[in-house]
Amino acid sequence: SQQGEEDPQALSIQEGENATMNCSYKTSINNLQWYRQNSGRGLVHLILIRSNEREKHSGRLRVTLDTSKKSSSLLITASRAADTASYFCATGRTNAGKSTFGDGTTLTVKP
Amino acid sequence: GAVVSQHPSWVICKSGTSVKIECRSLDFQATTMFWYRQFPKQSLMLMATSNEGSKATYEQGVEKDKFLINHASLTLSTLTVTSAHPEDSSFYICSARDGREKKDEQYFGPGTRLTVT
User: Fold this and answer.
1) Contact predicate A13/A108, CB 8 Å
2) Which residues on chain A are in Cβ contact (under 8 Å) with B93?
3) Per residue in B63-106, pLDDT tens?
4) Phi and psi dihedrals of A99, rounded to 5?
5) Which residues of B touch A102 (CB under 8 A)?
6) Which residue of A has its CA nearest to B43?
7) Which of A68, B23, B64, B65 could pair with B94 in a Cys bridge, judged by C-beta atoms 3.0 to 4.6 Å apart?
8) Beta strands in chain A, from DSSP E residues, in sequence order
């Protein structure tokens, strides 16, 4: 069963605006990863945050993790039309090995 | 960085035939590989976990006789869709874990789009 749930399911913004996506999960995790997927293409790994980390940055991306609330957020600042894609969170548990994906957020950035 | 390749990137086959998809870790040894499938506008669903040299572990609801997985080496896992039907048309993605270090990251392949006519 899917553990991660992203919200919103769809987000439409203007170029230059910030986009925030949230991910909630149910069980304890070792890490959480965010991926991007352009339509019909494979996954692109964006960032991994471990359970003992609270915030991580990579370029225009900022990820936070709140293990007490079992939630994570992905912030894309100064969005571009090229950021249009689906974004998925995936939770990882060391003993389980596998990642479990959420349903994804479809982001549309209008030029 | 770690690279995972898949071959073919897309395939069209006739109903009733079998299709083999390869997943390779190019610059690391993958003791564990995972196979996912994704339907249009949906998330990735784990099909099975493949450990080198042993039988794959299938998720509930996935037919092991239909989706044959072989992980014969530390760099190659294959998924064979047997007697394919149109409902098997999907995007299949593999991922691999680096077995040399205790890393948590999975490295994903680019995916294979299967269309069964």
Assistant:
1) yes
2) 42-43
3) 999 999 998 888 999 999 999 999 999 999 999 887 666 566 77
4) -105, 150
5) 43
6) A103
7) B23
8) 5-7, 10-14, 19-24, 31-37, 43-50, 55-58, 61-66, 71-76, 85-92, 99-101, 105-110
